[in-house]
Amino acid sequence: MVDVLIVGAGPAGWALAWCCTESGLHTAVLAPAPTGGWPATYGGWFDEFGHLPASAFAARPPATTVITRTEQRVPRDYVVLDNDGLGRWLRHPSVRTITGTAEEVTVGNNGATVRLTDGQRIAAAVVVDASGVRRALSGGPPRGAHTEQTAVGVRVPAGAVGGLADPEVATLMDWRPAPGALGASGQAASFCYRVPVGHGQMLIEETSLARRPGLPHEVLRERLHARLAAAGLADLAPHREERVRVPLDLTPRRTGEVLAFGVAAGLVHPATGYSLASSLRLAQPVATAIAEALPRSPAAAVRAAQRTIWSSSAFAVHGLRRYGLRSLRRMPPESLNAFFEAFFAQPAGTQRAYLSVRDDVAGTTAAMRAVFHASPPSVRRHLLRASVP
Ligand SMILES: Cc1cc2nc3c(=O)[nH]c(=O)nc-3n(C[C@H](O)[C@H](O)[C@H](O)COP(=O)(O)OP(=O)(O)OC[C@H]3O[C@@H](n4cnc5c(N)ncnc54)[C@H](O)[C@@H]3O)c2cc1C
C-alpha cells in the first residue's frame, strides 16, 4: 500500500508526485505511459514559473506583444517550456511508476483501492485524480455543450517566417482577421498566436479564445493556412499539426473522497485556458497538507488538500474569472479588439492580478474595474450584460 497514488502522468500529476515524495510520502504514479512525453506546447508567464530550473525553459523571447487595432508591448516576459527538461526535473526517481488505466475507485475508512482495466488493484491511503479533463475517478468529463478554447497550429522553421512574424517576438494575440477566411466560416473571431519555441522553430497557431461549443478545428485550420499562404509560406503548412481543445468551464472539484488535482480539479483559468503554472505552484502546499493531515486519517488528508486548492478566496476569484469568460464569449468580434487593447494597456501588476493570481479577490476585482473603465462604452455594455445569466 502506498501513501499517495496519483492517477495521471501529466505535468500536474508529476509535480504533485515530486512534492509528495520530498515530503516523505511513499508515492506512485499510475498512467498508460507514466514516463511518456507531453506533446503539447506549454507556455506561460515567466514570473509564474520563476521557480523552475533553466532546463525547463525552451524559449524566453526578448519581447512580447499583442496586436489589436495597434501593436502593444506586453510588460511581462512570456516563456515556452521545454517539456523534456521539465519532465526530467519533475520525475523523482523515488516515485514508483505503474503502467495501466484506472477504471474505478473504492474508498473506505483506511484508504482506497483503485481497480485498473486489466483487473489489477492498487491500495493507497490517498488517491489523487490527475487524469486531466477525463476526470477518470472524479465524475468524468464534462457532458453536453460547454465552453472551449480551440486552436490549430504548426511548428515551422523560425528562419522562414519573415513574411508573417518577427522570429524573436512572442505575439500572444494578433486579432487581424485571416485573409479571405472569414466569409466562408462565419464571423466567429479567432486570433493568431506566434511564439518562438526553441530549437530554431516557431509555433504559429490560429486560436479561438472561448466559444460554446468550441470553434471547429477545420475552421481554424482554414484560417491558419490562409495566413501562411498570404505570407508566402503555403509550403510550410503540412508540418506536424498541434490541436488544442481546452474546456474553460470545468466545475471546480472541492469535495469528494478522491482528491482531484490539475485540470481534473478545475484549475483551468476560465478566460485563458491555462492551468499549468497553478498546478506547479500548488503542488508543494498540497503535498504538505497531505503529509500533515495523513496521520489523523486519509479522509482528513484529502479534505486538507481540497481546502488548500480551493480556499474560499480562490473559489471567489474563480467566480469572477467565470464572469470574465461569459463576457468574452458573448462579445462581438469588433469589440474584442477594443477590450484587449484596454486590457493590455494596464500596468503589469494589474494584468498579473487578473491572469495569474488565483486567490486575490481585491486584486482581481480592481483589475476588472480598471479594464472596464479603460474600455469604450460599447465594450462596457457587453461587460455589464455578462452579469445576466
Ligand atoms: C495542445 C495543447 C496546448 C496547451 N497549452 C497550454 C499552455 O500553454 N499552458 C497551459 O497552462 N495549459 C495548456 N494546455 C492545457 C493543458 O491541458 C494543461 O495545461 C496540462 O496538460 C494539464 O496537465 P494535467 O497534468 O492536469 O493533465 P494532462 O496533461 O491532461 O494529463 C492527464 C494524464 O492522465 C492520464 N490518464 C487519463 N485517464 C487516465 C486513467 N483512466 N488512468 C490513468 N491515467 C489516466 C493521461 O494519460 C495523462 O498522463 C494545453 C493543452 C493542449 C491540448
Keyphrases for this structure?
389 residues; alpha/beta; FAD/NAD(P)-binding domain; D-Amino Acid Oxidase, Chain A, domain 2; 3 domains; 7-stranded mixed β-sheet; 11 helices; 17 strands; 34% helix; globular; binds flavin-adenine dinucleotide
Describe the model.
The chain has three domains: 2-35 and 91-142 and 250-310, FAD/NAD(P)-binding domain; 39-82 and 144-249, D-Amino Acid Oxidase, Chain A, domain 2 (2-Layer Sandwich); 314-385. The model has no long low-confidence stretch (mean pLDDT 94). A hairpin with a 3-residue loop joins strand 5 and strand 6. The chain contains eleven helices and 17 strands. The strands form three sheets. Strands 1, 2, 8, 9, 10, 11 and 17 form a seven-stranded mixed β-sheet that branches. The chain has helices at 11-22, 83-90, 181-185, 217-230, 276-293, 298-309, 312-330, 333-344, 348-355, 361-374, 377-385; strands at 2-7, 27-31, 43-45, 57-59, 63-67, 71-73, 78-81, 96-99, 102-108, 111-116, 121-129, 148-157, 169-174, 191-198, 201-211, 241-247, 259-260. The relative contact order is 0.15. The longest helix is centred in the last third of the chain and has 19 residues, at 312-330. With 389 residues, the chain is an alpha/beta fold.
